[in-house]
Amino acid sequence: MTTIQLYDATLRDGMQGEGMSLTADEKVRVVHKLDELGVDLVEAGFPSSNPKEAELFDLLARERFAHVDIAAFGMTRRRGVTADADEGLAVLAASFAPVCTIVGKTWALHLEKVVRVSAEENLAMIGESVAFLVAQGKRVVYDAEHFFDAYRADRDYALRCVAAAQGAGAETVVLCDTNGSSLPSQIATAAADVARVVERFGIHCHDDLECGVANTLAAVEQGAVQVQGTMNGIGERTGNANLISIIGNLQTKMGHAVLSAEQLGRLTETAHFVDELLNRVPDPQQPYVGRVAFAHKGGMHVAGVRADASTFEHMEPEAVGNERSLLVSELAGRATAAEKADALGLEVDAARVIDRVKELEHRGYQFEAADGSFELLLRKEAGVYEPLFRLESWRCIVEQRADGKVETEATIKIWVDGERYVRTAEGNGPVNALDRALRDALTEIHPHLRDLELVNFKVRILDETKGTGAVTRVLLDTSDGHDVWGSIGVNENVIAASWEALVDSLERAMQPARVRS
Amino acid sequence: MTTIQLYDATLRDGMQGEGMSLTADEKVRVVHKLDELGVDLVEAGFPSSNPKEAELFDLLARERFAHVDIAAFGMTRRRGVTADADEGLAVLAASFAPVCTIVGKTWALHLEKVVRVSAEENLAMIGESVAFLVAQGKRVVYDAEHFFDAYRADRDYALRCVAAAQGAGAETVVLCDTNGSSLPSQIATAAADVARVVERFGIHCHDDLECGVANTLAAVEQGAVQVQGTMNGIGERTGNANLISIIGNLQTKMGHAVLSAEQLGRLTETAHFVDELLNRVPDPQQPYVGRVAFAHKGGMHVAGVRADASTFEHMEPEAVGNERSLLVSELAGRATAAEKADALGLEVDAARVIDRVKELEHRGYQFEAADGSFELLLRKEAGVYEPLFRLESWRCIVEQRADGKVETEATIKIWVDGERYVRTAEGNGPVNALDRALRDALTEIHPHLRDLELVNFKVRILDETKGTGAVTRVLLDTSDGHDVWGSIGVNENVIAASWEALVDSLERAMQPARVRS
């Protein structure tokens, strides 16, 4: 069976989505994650469309990847200039990227209304641009924009466009459903036709008809050897075809070994990693990788799964690094709590723990991302919890002074072993200042708290429609170098919620298991 | 062309999704909304599985619908009892619902591992149950559970099951991909086979492979005359097939007139209505009905849309009650800025505006959701911006006192027309307190600012991995009762970022257009 090439467009096409933006550093981290997953090609963007992209390519040039090849993205030459005189192509040629992906027109409607070039000139633009980059020693991926609309409008011309790209030496010619206007059956018909004209073709779909994944698979069934998509389907409008689901389907449903079993096991982690960087709440219902993608609620289902998982599941969740969850039907809930308590060597009344969790979740708490706070909850229930200190008071002052300077100062007053500690610290923000003041006091007694680092800080407004009166949920991730744990705070006051999460994160660090380790 | 029957399972199968729950009253409102949309059948649930369902059927019995028929949902008779002795079937027969949908087994694996009945007994259970309800004067929809898994395991037996249901008088036999384990090509093959055996068949899919919608359409292409789905695809695990997208595709892409043009215009409103009742944030990227489903960001795209919308859109957004939106972004062309400036009657150098936007977005600003701040930026560029006040300083104090009480107090010192205003206010959080103090001063001069309401408050940490040292982006939505606008602030200090957004939101409210209106 031909191997399918995985082409990720998250960093370029994906960034067209509303609110999508990553720093150059973050983009490099994404490429490493995609490299570990086993993606073949990563579209990084146009080398110098703006400072951020320029910075990104400088960084990428210095990185080494085990598997991934970087693709620089651009367009065919402008009309009326030779390829070697086109600035855009020159930038691509000069880039370190071994692969260049260029997009060109296929659809008469666009030639007339958008770029205003003749059909013949467009064919020349395609052929010469591809040939130029090939002559510069680049591997060229040619994206045939609006291929399917063009095919429906003028089959012969659409086929001439892709043939021109291949004739000029393109490694792969990609059929793009740019407007996301095609159905799987239309994709299949056109792709079968292309297969008669072109050696190696790929597919690039969007999700406007909620068929992005199915459209991609339809093309693969007709011989496409490259699938383009984005992590979790991020992208403009309704998004691009979701590469996560495409991988899952190719590998577990269609028998294409696109990844090793070990790489496939990273699918869930990779999907969540990208969401985290974008500060998107991972979709709990996302196919293959969602938190509840393998969850069961209906009583009959739960019974069935117990009898034989295959009765109600299309695959083993573990294969994609996900897990089965039986939703808080009392029973399932207790089992989970009991399991976690056992793992910590704690004796708890699981039923009471669940009641407590339900009550807290009703108030906006969420323990899935706050394992540290959940552990403290279990210890309290088990009666083995020891507070790190007794709080007298804390105060945080943030001011913008007359000279325009913003200053933050926090003061904490706490008691430890009958001793009173009063500390004040400045910070770049209220939480940072409170953290410094609190740890300034605590590290005198517990020096190792000095090594802790707050690695992640998330704020979510729970009932956003209540404006600033809404309840605020703060999630903190803390690391001691080996181990990372999450803590949570909920309060209508964002600073008070942050304080609560901060205290949990430090107390969790002091629990026996860690002190021993 | 055969008319396709729209069957909505939101109130029954949809409620299997995590966190999905509606009161009986709310469910009745949903049915009315579905009736207006033009849905044919609504699956309301099992008439007395619990008090809530019982109440629902009492209410529904008293309602009148223009178009919708209510379907009561149940199962085939238990093994070893006659159909007329089965309590479940008796409840269905007694229900006012003109339609009864019953689900039965098709898959040997389930017969062995879950229900433990013989293949022959199962056929009898199907036939006798359908026949009983038909004899009671019901129209019967038969759901063949796990049809596609069963078909792959034992084609002949699967076909005998659906034939048995039809033979006993079922109006429609529905092929259910219960585990969501099938791909469109598999659905097509099996459906084509069924079409040779059964008169009227329908399709019920889930989205586990992100192919729920495509699978449904694949069955329609093979002759399915009933499509089952849920509003926005809610449901267990990854959800059911999304009836909203199915309707959009059937009507606008496949030429099936399932709705009138006027009903199709209600698609967006209906989708959002259900989300609202379920207290779900509507997915802005949802196909057809999402807020940004027809948004454009890429500069080339924006230019194209302006030339001719069909160049970058698969349809007119208005046809489904949605609208086009152009996003401002570091990737966007000058055209967008120019258009927004025109709309405000401002003269700007679009190129300079874009450079400014790029520079700001590089620092973490994002104007897509902050149209208010973008308007102010345009006014500054046009030289017609007038600040609402001159800031001397602000200060915010948040403290948890020794008695445990959290208190927040803000003081602002500003100048307006040479007058100095010093105000202090308390609030339930820092932003709320600053807002009160600031407006306390400003409303003396601009009374109408009193009517403003902060309706939405979002906080994003931009480089989360920098922990509390990360840059914070605050988005505020403000309403004056008619109009809602977004404003943005970016600062490493969350309070300073909030202040910036707050000031923008008030200044935007003071701009000429609004004061006139």
UniProtKB/TrEMBL annotation, chains A, B:
Molecular function terms, GO-annotated: (R)-citramalate synthase activity; 2-isopropylmalate synthase activity
Enzyme Commission designation: 2.3.3.21
Pfam families, per database record: HCS_D2, HMGL-like, LeuA_dimer
Pathway connected to this protein: Amino-acid biosynthesis; L-isoleucine biosynthesis; 2-oxobutanoate from pyruvate: step 1/3
Species of origin: Capillimicrobium parvum
Domain annotation Pyruvate carboxyltransferase: ranges: 4-265
Swiss-Prot/TrEMBL GO biological process terms: isoleucine biosynthetic process; L-leucine biosynthetic process
Full protein name: Citramalate synthase
Origin: domain of life: Bacteria
UniProt similarity note: Belongs to the alpha-IPM synthase/homocitrate synthase family.
Keywords, ordered alphabetically: Acyltransferase, Amino-acid biosynthesis, Branched-chain amino acid biosynthesis, Isoleucine biosynthesis, Transferase
Enzymatic class: transferase
Catalyzed chemical reaction(s): pyruvate + acetyl-CoA + H2O = (3R)-citramalate + CoA + H(+)
